[in-house]
Amino acid sequence: MSYIVDRRLNGRNKSAVNRQRFLRRYREHIRKAVADAVNRRSITDMERGEEISIPTREIDEPNFQHGQGGRRQYVHPGNREFHAGDRIARPPAGGQGQGGGGGSGSASPDGQGEDTFVFSLTREEFLDFLFDDLELPNLERTELAQIEHTRQVHAGIIREGTPSRINVVRSMRSAYGRRLAMGSSLRQALKAAEQELAHLQAQAPVDLQAVAELEQQIAHLQKRLQKIPFLDTYDLRYNHFAQEPVASSQAVMFCIMDVSGSMTQNHKDIAKRFFLLLYLFLERHYERIDLVFVRHHTSAREVNEQDFFYSRETGGTIVSSALKLVNEIIDKRYPTSLWNIYCAQASDGDNWDDDSSQCASLLEEALLPKVRYFAYVEITPHEHQALWQEYEQIRAQHPERFAMQQIVDQKDIFPVFRELFKRRASL
Amino acid sequence: MSPTSYTTKKDKQPLSNTSEWTFELIEAYDQAFARLAREYGLDTYPNQIEIISSEQMMDAYAAIGMPVGYHHWSFGKHFLSVEQSYKRGQMGLAYELVINSNPCIAYLMEENTLMMQALVIAHACYGHNSFFKNNYLFQTWTDASAIIDYLMFARQYLSECEQKYGVDAVENLLDACHALQNYGVDRYKRPVPISAEEERKRQAERENYLQQQVNALWTTIPQARDKQADAQSPPRYPTEPQENLLYFIEKNAPLLEPWQREVVRIVRKIAQYFYPQRQTQVMNEGWATFWHYTLMNRLYDDGLVTEGFILEFLQSHTSVIYQPPFDSPHYSGINPYALGFAIYTDIKRICEQPTEEDRQWFPEIAGADWLETLHFAMRHFKDESFILQYLSPKVMRDLHLFSVLDDDQKSELEISAIHDEMGYREVRRLLASQYNLSLREPDIQVWNADIRGNRSLTLRHQRSQRRPLDKHTFAVLRHIHALWGFPVHLQSCEGEEVIVKYQYPHSH
Q: Where in this chain does the record put each SpoVR-like C-terminal domain (chain B) (predicted)?
């Protein structure tokens, strides 16, 4: 007696819990490996998993076992030249001569094992560790129910529509049904007439008149049958599609960077990583993200990503020009009722002295009311200048939506990012 | 390979001409095998054949053959290593996995060809299944109809514990129990079969009772010392050494909470369920391999499968029973499929075409009914005794078996016996003892629990052949300490003489 069961549609991830338990147990190892990977990897390369190695001794499950030494005998297969009593040199430890043991299957507890246990984190797990404990500030879904975005969904079959949406199968099926229904009484009559005709013709004196009448009747019936249309407008069926509103949440992220002469490529790389982390982070919370790159020296310009990071400029620095441009772009293209707005600004702290106060007032009056979060990183090992001091006052007044940090080295990016976005108890 | 003639029989339609499987074809093959199995007297549990994907196979594989497992990181670790080597193509997935339960659950992977599905059905659903049902060890130690329920109970109980006492507390406890899971059986006592129903019913009752017992045991300490007893050496507790460490801890550990004792018991019971499998690897795999070979060839002889089918089968059968020689880079011990298949096949040969040598070595089976002899051999032995009883000189010659003596007091290895007239008995004895669990694993027993003094626990390791313990010993003692709650000592002894002393925590 056998039962055959198809289990393929059952859950695939029976081990998911155990896998999570494992990751949980070795959290510290993995976190460290992920942090290293973030610093090491190239920027375009963040969206994949990571291979993690853990020293085997850390994850051993100990058991009582025999160690090396003592007197032991093992039986091996494949003898070719040995005779009883032969003596042979001891092979180096860890080589052959261990295996014996009755082939204990998968586990090979002794010797030979590698020194590290290697496994892969999936992309999701990698990002989870990357963003572990981080929470998006002021995460409230603007316009959640707003019907900006719709999606076409199949909404059944209808009788009216445009020719391009004819559902051929359904149309033919209903035509066939109609033909069956309309023709059935005719076909019955025809069949009866034909039988009678056959009957009449079989009789010895053929009643010619009756035969002629019947033949006429048959011809009439056949004609009527033929007149039943193969396809009628009545039969036509159309696929129906409906527009279904999709609750969308969208964000725009402004990347603002100083590209004046004092910003070296190294500065820009650091800034780039910072923007990238922010982007990855936002991507996990919003379905749609627009990126706007604004670079500035003495004047600001909206550019594409390539130009933003790699074209060279020289000259002085007027930060307010960029803030002004961002404000204009928001007013023109990103109404706050529809967009979650995030700004990230990177600079080396240089600014024309009398511009800094202007920046502060621009932020305070125009920008901060519109944005969800404004993050400023200053990439410099030097003393802070006027801009930093002005911004510090803003931070004091708006700690919930304004953050700033200093970055000196590549290694600082991740900790700083975490600091900027760390979970806030109050939220 | 037995001299079956491979000529196509034209009189019958083959069951299939394709390598793609369908449910109908699987059913057809299953029915064909069932008919043949009846003919050969294979007595089986009903089969539950489950078609699964390769990911699901990895899941099943990682759960070490428990269809319903409790959660623990070590299974996650196992899963990750299986996944890693599978993804890198270092390892194909095991194409069969079968569970000793009633009905007997066998997994078929959807990626397999029809031939492989048929092979797995023959191997698992009729080979392993009949072994599970009829081998004395399985009959004694496991209850196939209760295991799934028991595992469900265990999982539920453990997840309740996690909710009540926290994931970490349960995890640490399981870590400690797992370290001792090979020391959770009474080798010479018949266990009470497990039943989830009974467990659930008695569990609360037992909790109270157990705690009372433990309390009674420990109330006499520490102050009430009998002066007379003090004069002599105080009596040991337990009076006889106990080999079942987990059982001893479950019943006697002074500080464990009732729920913790229950968890110890769960690990012990599950270890008990797997105990027969660890002792019958060669017999079990050999039996299943012998029958898939026999049943598949019968299908061919009866004209039910095509020539292409049987050739595909022979190719995979050959790789299953391949035994790399000791100096091959692929060598990792004796292949239980190869050894078991060789012995069963040879038993059949001895029954049917005994030589002079066979009559001398196996007078009681030479010329006997092969089917009856084979069934007898399957039912009444475990690997150790099976090899001792049935390993024939011919098989030793075919596999070129030889034994190596490795004595750390000598500078060279010595070939102690080979497959010749002088060596047959020695090789056979040594190979058999290689499968003796009590020699394979260090002999460690509870020696003394100092119930009148500092409550420390002393274990004794009886060395055999001067073999020491390995570097994991301290880690295991740490786990025992976690269970026992007071200092743990381990004495490694040669006869009565203590050679090495381990203890945890380190006192100085």
A: 442-494
pLDDT score for B314: 95
Cα–Cα distance for residue pair B352/B365, rounded to 1 Å: 10
CATH number for the region A250-420 comes to 3.40.50.410
| Alpha-carbon distances of B490 from A319, B185, B446, B499, B503, rounded to whole Å | 73, 20, 9, 11, 6
Contact between B434 and A102 (Cβ < 8 Å): yes
Interface of A with B in 308-367 (CB under 8 A): none
On whether the CB atoms of residues B467 and A71 are closer than 8 A, the answer is yes
Query: Residue A99: what pLDDT?
Result: 37
Q: Which residues of B touch A72 (CB under 8 A)?
A: 405-407, 465, 467
Percent of chain B's residues with pLDDT above 70: 88
Residue B41 lies in a domain: no
The Cα A271–Cα A277 span in angstroms is 10
pLDDT band, very low/low/confident/very high, at A49 (cuts 50, 70, 90): confident
Nearest to B80 among A19, A80, A88 (CB): A19
How far B301 CA lies from chain A's nearest CA (Å)? 24
User: Which ipTM score applies to this complex?
Assistant: 0.84
Domain ranges of chain A: 18-59+116-132, 163-240, 250-420
Residues B429, B345: one domain? yes
Please give the model's pTM, rounded to 2 decimal places.
Answer: 0.71
Query: Mean pLDDT throughout A385-411?
Result: 83
Number of cross-chain residue pairs from A and B with Cβ atoms under 8 Å apart: 286
The parent domain of residue B458 ranges over: 441-504
* Together in a domain, B353 and B429: yes
- Tokens representing B249 are 């801890």
Nearest to A75 among B76, B431, B473 (CB): B431
Claim to verify: residue B394 and residue B341 sit in the same structural domain: yes
